[in-house]
Design brief:
By secondary structure, this protein is α+β, with helices and mostly antiparallel strands. Helix content is 26%, strand content 24%. It is globular and about 50 Å long.
């Protein structure tokens, strides 16, 4: 059977009413082709432009290696000047990525180059979005966002994305007290004999082109692969549900602090226990035919 992947819905433009009924209320992903074409960024933003306006800021870099059991989540693998990193990803494939970077802190004029899609929904968190940069072939591991926000993810380049509804989390081998899966499998090419719970998991496949905007509803798991050296900007908005907001608060405070404490104190023993529990939960969910 394998993974059951269907293509994502793609629209050129969309009204607020259609967006609310078909995608926001149902929490269904969609690609909007023309949203960012109205931004100054669509014409202005390039690797060279980013290098010019951000300057010689030193940035943390991340790779695909398995996390240090004792390290807090999102610990970086290396550091490099931003301009040198841009030169690297323009020049050659690399596993190194910039994650949750805020170039606007160093170049406030970038704020004038994009607009949150408030014509589609409200609740946008702030005016400082996250940006992500990656080299050709670099991958973002399978995870969901800890703050449980809705995300409008606009890419300036080419990117391959796999998406999975939150209800599949146990079958995806979610690590307890974390927002990511076991790092021992490749979701784009799974070993179903070793990880049988993945067999039959349903998801959505998406390919973004320059200027495309992906709407990812709250809680959706995502794996991303850069098909060229390129970058993205993510604009975040709260869901109206107080239950979702409470879940976000729990993740960001109690769960994260507990997990970091246990990692620091018990290191590999704690991580081994979490990975073992992820496998047990996945096998149980498979046996019970979850999710229903």
């Amino acid at each position: 059977m394998g993974l059951i992947l269907k293509p994502i819905d793609v629209v050129k433009d969309i009204t607020k009413e259609e967006f609310e009924e078909k995608y926001l209320k149902t929490r269904t992903p969609v690609v909007i082709k023309n949203m960012a074409k109205k931004w100054p960024a669509y014409q202005k933003w390039s690797m060279d432009y980013m290098k010019e306006v951000v300057g010689d800021v030193e940035v943390p870099l991340y790779d695909s290696s398995k996390a240090d059991p004792s390290a807090p989540i999102n610990a970086s693998a290396a550091k490099m000047k931003f301009g040198d990193y841009i030169d690297l990803i323009k020049r050659e494939p690399t596993d190194l990525r910039i994650f949750l970077f805020d170039p606007i802190k160093f170049a406030p004029k970038l704020l004038d180059d994009f607009l949150p899609p408030k014509d589609l929904m409200g609740g946008f968190l702030d005016k400082y979005p996250n940006m992500f940069f990656g080299g050709e072939g670099s991958e973002t591991f399978l995870h969901f966002d800890i703050d449980m926000a809705h995300i409008f993810h606009t890419h300036f380049g080419k990117k391959h994305i796999l998406l999975f509804d939150y209800k599949w989390r146990e079958r995806l081998y979610q690590i307890p007290y974390a927002t990511y899966s076991l790092e021992d499998y490749d979701i784009s090419n799974p070993d179903f004999e070793k990880f049988p719970a993945l067999d039959g998991v349903e998801g959505i496949e998406c390919f973004l082109q320059y200027g495309d905007t992906l709407f990812m509803p709250t809680g959706w798991w995502h794996w991303m692969k850069y098909l060229d050296g390129s970058f993205s900007i993510s604009l975040r908005a709260w869901d109206k549900s107080w239950a979702v907001k409470a879940h976000s608060l729990w993740n960001l405070t109690v769960q994260r602090k507990f997990d970091n404490f246990m990692k620091a104190r018990y290191k590999k023993r704690y991580m081994d226990w979490k990975e073992s529990l992820a496998i047990k939960r996945a096998e149980k969910a498979l046996k019970e035919g979850l999710p229903k």
